[in-house]
Automatic annotation (TrEMBL):
E.C. designation(s): 6.2.-.-
Lineage, uppermost ranks: Bacteria, Bacillati, Bacillota, Bacilli, Bacillales
Matches recorded under Gene3D superfamilies: 3.30.110.120, 3.30.420.360, 3.30.420.40, 3.90.870.50
Organism of derivation: Neobacillus massiliamazoniensis
InterPro entries per record: Acylphosphatase-like_dom, Acylphosphatase-like_dom_sf, Acylphosphatase_CS, ATPase_NBD, Carbamoyltrans_HypF-like, Carbamoyltransferase_HypF, DHBP_synth_RibB-like_a/b_dom, HypF_C
Name used for this protein in its record: Carbamoyltransferase
Superkingdom of this protein's organism: Bacteria
A molecular-function term among this protein's GO annotations: ligase activity
GO biological process: protein maturation
Length: 763
């Protein structure tokens, strides 16, 4: 007996070979009907034997394509239409969008095999792809994801490509970026004046120039990279000078896992992430055989590395004498990623010697994602290419909420029904170019995601750019959320924690309700509200932002405010080259001139880093804290320095004894790695002691704790806090899907807004 069902599949089911998969599955189970993309996902009409339909539905869930992610399958009985075969029909573009926008994916092994096969007609073609790999989000103009609505519309398919594209049994069936040397995009090599210089084999010429120590701007999947030979010290130094990036670590791209083994230690989890379809930069520890240029990551014990993720990368790195390249974003400092050719020529003038470009337009730029494996778990430092704009599912209605993030490492987040879409990494909103980049990407995703603009959410800081940006979008209401409450809420939501919990937030800067700078907090509450239970004792920041750029000022201010005359003496001994400035800082603190009070983990780390002589000045965000953290061995447990807990208005954590002993240890020339390790353990023990005290005075509170804030990227803190709090009986949760730094702030803001909306509806 023939029966019929209508199947709706929602999730990441477009641009991943899902319709050919459905076609082949129907063929296996002898079923007839249709499959179609629409604005809601994929619609399937099935007719046949009921047992065969059941088997089909089982395989649909368990054998879906590698890049697909099924969120929901709805099955309803329907009328038999007496279909005679199974076919893939044209996409339907009407209706409300519930689509998951396909993400960009690293080139797959099947395509690489073909690309390296001299008998294949795509031999050495740098834009080879299939339904399981290649560009997606970066080339989309409109939805649904079909070739006429991508930048590939400029390249009419040849007969060979069309034959594959239309064959439902071919892995390139409806692969929208399908191309070959006869009909697809092409690369060109230009000199520093923008003139084409190599017509026959631009890739071979590029390899030659890289081996000669030249700097090449390479147009990739989501934007331009600046590249040079990672083993050529002079080339790396020259790149740093030209880009005005003196110390910040540079990412490298290695030809293979075996090449990475030559300079980094990594475990199985790190290897799996390196080889994943997302293919992010993975921060790993350098090994004893490290043979790359010292200037790549000066003074660091870690290195950020990735594998080639486009066919073009593989072709460049195929030369046995060029197996590791610097591959750093080509944007000038503070600017958004460069992705348009004319902008690259403008901004990279005087930096790049050559430009390897192509004529497939990038419509949506994305930076490389950056991750590390921290205490055995994924720790996202930057969530972008390969992850964006894949939604995070929730069990709450978040429709109509758009959150605008913060000032640094900013992202935006959009809610639709029970889907949360975090936008790509934008950067710091410090110039008009980055603000325009932010607005352009926000407006595209708002259009694609198609959700009402009901509630805008912004950081409570009165000076953040988002406060002005939000005015342009006409939201019914604008909600301000405290910075660290957003960090807490992000981790609560990720782990679906509905009740009350403690939030330990260790961060750099967040505007506090008392007008001071917060960033070392213990909260208790949920996504809708919180109570501040404990914090770091405030110390002054004379010159405010200048203390962040010059951590020695922060260290001096701590010594003066915590230890008076003795502190001044210590500061003058440690920072002997800053004697006049120290006297000025003393006056600024005493008379409260351009001075704010702060209690943040970031500034505490900066101060200790400066005292140790690790980083008295910061050339990039977080430099002082990062370099200090590099000195602490997360395989050890150190002896902590003394500290105090004081019951003031709320429980206050005092490190005055810690700072004093560290200063004395520095003067006695004690080992700074040991000082760093002891300081790290002091922070851990202070938090554990504070948590123990808070539980003792309020034993009825939940023994659930979430950790977040930028300092939770610190390997030692993350591992030891988890261990020690678990030992005390707490259930500890850490961010995994979303960065704990400000890249995850907009996600947390949206969660807070949704929780407040639910609480109001229950009143």
């Amino acid at each position: 007996m023939r029966t019929a069902v209508k199947v709706s599949v929602r999730g990441r089911v477009q641009g991943v070979g899902f319709r050919p998969f459905v076609f082949q599955l129907a063929d296996i189970h002898k079923l007839v009907g249709t499959v179609q993309n629409n604005m809601d996902g994929v619609k399937i009409h099935l007719e046949g034997n009921p047992t065969s339909i059941e088997a089909f539905l089982s395989d649909l869930k368990t054998k879906a394509p590698r890049l697909s992610k099924i969120n929901e399958i709805l099955v309803h009985d329907t009328k038999v239409q007496h279909a005679v075969d199974f076919s893939i029909i044209e996409s339907e573009r009407s209706g409300t969008s519930m689509l998951v926008i396909p993400i960009d994916s690293a080139v797959c092994d099947d395509c690489l095999t073909e690309m390296n096969d001299p008998s294949d007609f795509r031999y050495q073609y740098p834009f080879i792809n299939c339904t399981q790999c290649g560009p997606r989000y970066t080339i989309i103009e409109e939805l649904p994801y079909d070739r006429p609505y991508t930048s590939m519309k400029e390249f009419p398919m040849c007969e060979d490509c069309r034959r594959e594209y239309e064959d439902p049994r071919n892995r390139r069936h409806h692969a929208q970026p399908i191309a070959c040397p006869n009909c697809g995009p092409k690369v060109r090599l230009l000199n520093s004046q923008g003139l084409e210089i190599e017509l026959e084999n631009p890739i071979k010429a590029t390899i030659k120039h890289l081996k000669e120590g030249k700097i090449v701007a390479i147009k990739g999947l989501g934007g331009y990279h600046l590249s040079c030979d990672a083993r050529n010290e002079q080339a790396v130094v020259t790149l740093r000078k030209r880009k005005k990036r003196p110390l910040r670590p540079l990412a490298v791209m290695a030809a293979s896992i075996s090449e990475i083994e030559k300079f980094a230690d990594f475990n199985n989890a790190e290897a799996e992430v390196l080889k994943s379809p997302e293919s992010p930069i993975v921060v790993m520890k350098k090994n004893g055989y490290y043979g790359l240029a010292d200037a790549l990551a000066p003074g660091m014990r870690t290195i950020g590395a990735m594998l080639p993720y486009t066919p073009l990368h593989h072709l460049i790195l195929a030369d046995p004498e060029l197996t590791c390249l610097v591959m750093t974003s080509a944007n000038p400092s503070g600017m958004p990623i460069l992705f348009k050719d004319e902008e690259a020529f403008q901004y990279l003038d005087g930096i790049a010697d050559y430009y390897l470009i192509h004529n497939r337009e990038i419509l949506h730029p994305v930076d490389d994602s950056v991750v590390q494996i921290n205490d055995g778990k994924l720790d996202l430092l930057r969530r972008s290419r390969g992850f964006v704009p894949d939604p995070i599912l929730t069990d709450k209605d978040v429709s109509g909420i758009v959150s605008f993030g913060g000032q640094q490492k900013t992202t935006f987040t959009i809610g639709r029904n029970e889907q949360i879409f975090i936008g790509p990494h934008i950067g710091d909103l410090e110039n008009i170019e980055t603000i325009h980049h932010y607005q352009r990407e926000l407006e595209h995703l708002l259009k694609w995601i198609d959700t009402p603009k009901t509630t805008a959410v912004i950081d409570a800081h009165p000076g953040y750019q988002v406060k002005n940006l939000v005015k342009e979008y006409g939201f019914a209401e604008v909600l301000e959320v405290q910075h660290h409450h957003a960090h807490m809420a992000a981790c609560l939501e990720e782990h679906q924690i509905a009740g009350k919990a403690y939030g330990i937030i260790l961060d750099g800067t967040g505007y506090g309700f008392d007008g001071s700078i917060w960033g070392f907090e213990i909260f208790y509450g949920d996504a809708s509200e919180f109570e501040r239970m404990s914090h770091l004792h405030y110390t002054p920041l004379p010159g405010s932002e200048k203390c962040i750029r010059e951590p020695w000022r922060n260290a001096t201010a701590m010594l003066i405010s915590l230890h008076g005359k003795k502190g001044i003496e210590l500061a003058k001994e440690i920072f002997a080259d800053k004697l006049p400035e120290i006297d000025i800082l003393k006056v600024m603190i005493e008379k409260n001139i351009n001075t704010v009070m702060a209690g943040t983990c970031g500034r505490l780390f900066d101060a200790v880093s400066a005292l140790c002589g690790v980083a008295k000045m910061s050339t990039y965000d977080g430099e002082a804290a990062i370099k200090l953290a590099e000195l602490a061995d997360d395989r050890k447990v150190y002896l902590p320095y003394p500290f105090d807990l004081r019951n003031e208005e709320i429980l206050s954590i005092h490190f005055s004894k810690t700072i004093l002993e560290i200063a004395e240890d520095i003067i006695e020339n004690k080992d700074i790695s040991e000082i760093s390790g002891r300081f790290h353990e002091t922070v851990v023990q202070a938090i554990v002691s504070a948590m123990s005290h808070l539980q003792s005075i309020a034993p009825e509170t939940e023994k659930t704790v979430v950790l977040s804030g930028g300092s939770i990227h610190n390997r030692y803190l993350r591992k030891r806090l988890n261990t020690e709090l678990t030992r005390l009986g707490f259930n500890v949760y850490l961010p995994v899907k979303v960065p704990c730094n400000d890249g995850g702030l907009s996600y947390g803001q949206l969660v807070v807004a949704a929780a407040k909306r639910r609480s109001l509806s229950c009143v």
